[in-house]
Structures are given as structure tokens and as C-alpha cells.
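Your task:
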Amino acid sequence: MYSEIVMEHFQNPRNVGEIENADGIGEVGNPKCGDIMKMYIKIEDNVIVDVKFKTFGCGSAIASSSMTTELIKGKTIKEALQLTNKDVAQALGGLPPVKVHCSVLAEQAVKAALLDYSKRNNIIIEELEGFDPTEDVHHH
């Protein structure tokens, strides 16, 4: 059973779309399981001033993406990197165990977008050392 918050973010997702000339773009997911998330971020003075997403997947994946964009908008890079999939699931009022991987994907998408941003700008973000956005995590 899904919480009202999950249903609300699935039926009325926030920040859908893409950002032209985004400062960072992260794409994570696995076509085999069907969930693919793409996150676009705009950064000014180390703050995420805009974030949009495109998600191909189930309702939980869309709700997780939507909630994640709400949680990181206006945050500094360091604050955004502290966001965990548990924070996302909690903000959504919980996810069924079989859908927890959707919140993991959302966390990974943020990191992938920030990694892209760091590479484009030749910045080292210590928290992303060793992070591999192509690594398949916690899937079914």
C-alpha cells in the first residue's frame, strides 16, 4: 500500500522536465528492471538553484524523483550529498520494501548529477570519490 504522499507525488510530480544548459546531468538506472532516472541540476554559488528530472519507471520511482528534487532544491552541494534514500523514503511516508530501490536510485541520480557537475568544472567533491553511477545497486 502506498502512502498519500507517494500517490500525490506520483499523480502531481514536481520539477518534471529538463534544464537547458544544466550544470550537471546524472542518469542512473537499469533498463532491465525498467527504472531509469535522469536528473538535471543548475548550481550557483555552490547552491542547487534548480533541479528537474525525467524518470521512466513505476509510480514509486516517479514519486521518489519528485520528492528528491523538492528536498535538494535550495540546498548546498554538501547538504544535497547528505541526502540518503532513507530520507527520501521517510519524506514520502514510507515505501513498500520491494520499492525501496526507487529511493536508492533517486539518491544515486543526485550524486551522478553532482559528479557530472564536478567533472565539467574540474572540481573535486570528496564525498563522490569512488562513486560509480553505472554501478547497479539494490535491484530486485
About this structure: The longest strand covers residues 35-44. The chain has a mean pLDDT of 94. The domain at 4-120 is CATH 3.90.1010.10 (Sufe protein. Chain: A).
